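Annotated sample (chain length 296).
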Amino acid sequence: MKLSNISLPYPVLGICDDILPELDENSIKVKNITPSNDSNNYSFEFELLFENDEIKEYINKGFAEYTCEVDCVQTVFRQSHPFPNNKFTITIPRKSVYGRVDFNCFVSVKKTIHNYSNSNFNEDYYGFSFDLQPGDILVGFPQKHIDTDIKYDKLHAAGSFMEIVKGPQSQRETKFNFEEQKIQIVLPEDLYNLCEGNSLAKKYGIVMQSSLAYNALTCALYEISSLPTTLKWVRVISTRLHTEDDLKEFLVNEDEDGIQVERVPELAMRILKDPYNRLINYLSDKVENDNQNDNE
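Output written by the structure step:
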């Protein structure tokens, strides 16, 4: 259940300003704690935080509990887990999920609550009370997700979101394709064979990044908002934008995925770690070495 898409007939902490103070992104913390030697499961550690003594009292008295709904669109996997405390761990079989896994956490009613009211209700609800049934929501935390198919220790490698592929025989010019799991630089067959045969991407990675990769990434970033969020390269870029401090400034809003369009070329440069700088230094060193060899 994604709270931003629904309207409830009673106030819920975390939906707009129904109950104050509103929750922010720090009210839910999720950490992937999967042991490196566990090939069968994923494990996630949660901590849920909010300030509302009346709701906490319902939890302490057994009228409410913490719950977490786990959803994976690609495998149609869904589970709901109840917990007595705000810190808990969820374990999911690896074979049950693939790609993005969404977590929706709540404080849910466990036993019927009659005449529910809260001193922190928005003034629109002053004087009102509500009868709540098991399953109703008292707190809705911001949705979180983890991409199980992204290797987070390799996010900075261009190869995690971009690849060079061979185009059809009829192709005569280099093209870009943004509708596959990785950004594709599609080379004509003869250029692809030259590139692969001479291992150009490995031997001259700096040159390739400052030319083909930079152009492809810049064009892709201009199109990213119109493409499915299920594409792996879109999720990789989104993850970096929301987790790396030097990239967050390019977002229109830190809570959303929108990029400041006028800064796309600068963002591409930042993601690829200033490839022009590295290219010029590389060429300068090469010229210096060539001059030394000529003088020997």
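Annotation: Helices lie at 53-60, 189-197, 200-203, 205-223, 232-243, 245-248, 264-271, 275-295.
Annotation: The mean pLDDT is 89.
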